[in-house]
Amino acid sequence: MRKTGAGTIWGKKHYNIPNLSQYHLEPTPFVVDAIPFLRENDIKTILDAGCGQGRNSLYLRKQNFEITSIDASKEACALTKKLFQKHNLGLSLINSELQNIPTIRSNSIDAIICVTVLTHILDPEIVLREFYRILKPGGILIADLANTKDSTYPIISKSGIPLGKNVFLEGDTNVKYFEDSEDVKALFHKFKVLSTQDITFEEPPHPGSRQYNHIHSSFVITAQKQK
User: Fold this and answer.
1) Does residue 98 contact residue 50 with C-beta atoms inside 8 Å?
2) At what angle do helices 74-86 and 7-14 cross, to 10 degrees?
3) Interatomic CA distance for residues 109 and 119, integer angstroms
4) How far is Cα 9 from Cα 173, in angstroms, rounded to an integer?
5) How far apart are CA 18 and CA 82, in angstroms?
6) Which position among 113, 206, 212, 219 has the lowest Cβ density within 10 Å, counted as fewest Cβ atoms?
7) CB 219 within 8 A of CB 118
8) Residues 6+ apart with CB under 8 A from 64
9) What count of Cα atoms within 13 Å lies in the side-chain half-sphere of residue 161?
10) Residue 11, H or E segment
11) Could you tell me the residue ranges of all domains in the chain?
12) What does pTM read for this prediction?
């Protein structure tokens, strides 16, 4: 799976085009759907973990949340900065791997959004432990992991190099697909799992990677740090 330091590879593959107009900038549907829940839980500060080109960070900022954006890719961070400048908005931005984020204090963040990231992490439990550390007691984590109904699965399962059950090396990056929501929930054993959803949504082409319309199918976990 994706190793520490892989942000350089990831950025060159997925965020190597500096023109923002080439990117899909609409927020991820399940992030939009989470807004009422976040407000009901009095969430004010959110970490967008693996912010990519900044589309979810921008949406959440426009919903009046206080956002910190983090990505291991320098290219992604540059795009996020450019996007916020375009909208005349200030930005708290960190260029770092997610396994260790020393610039964020323990028990300091209300919520974490992590979109299409954990699927590519070598050991997601290391990242989840770091998320647990920085969340406040009672803090919320919303994250997704790809499942085998994803439209990329039949493509990558044929073209990728198999590394294990439903785990493939695709070029320089890796993808793990899950079949069973219980396997996903087991990763979040330090948290209280509030809900597990099996969701599907369509995405347009991504420059540098999936240059075709594609359907994402994921297990979305909403979890809470114990109070």
Assistant:
1) yes
2) 50
3) 23
4) 8
5) 9
6) 212
7) no
8) none
9) 8
10) helix 7-14
11) 7-15+41-224
12) 0.92
Whole-angstrom distance, CA of residue 104 vs CA of residue 46: 12
Q: Class of the 7-15+41-224 domain?
A: alpha beta
32, two tokens: 């939009």
Helices (H) and strands (E) in the chain, counts: 8, 10
Per-position DSSP letters for 154-184, written without gaps between them: HHHHHHSEEEETTEEEETTEEEE-BS-HHHH
Length of the chain: 227
- The pLDDT score that the predictor gives to residue 128 is 97
Which tokens sit at 52?
Answer: 């990519």
Cα separation, 179 vs 52, whole angstroms: 26
**pLDDT at residue 201, rounded to an integer:** 87
**Tell me: the pLDDT tens digits for 102-127?**
999 999 999 999 999 999 887 899 99
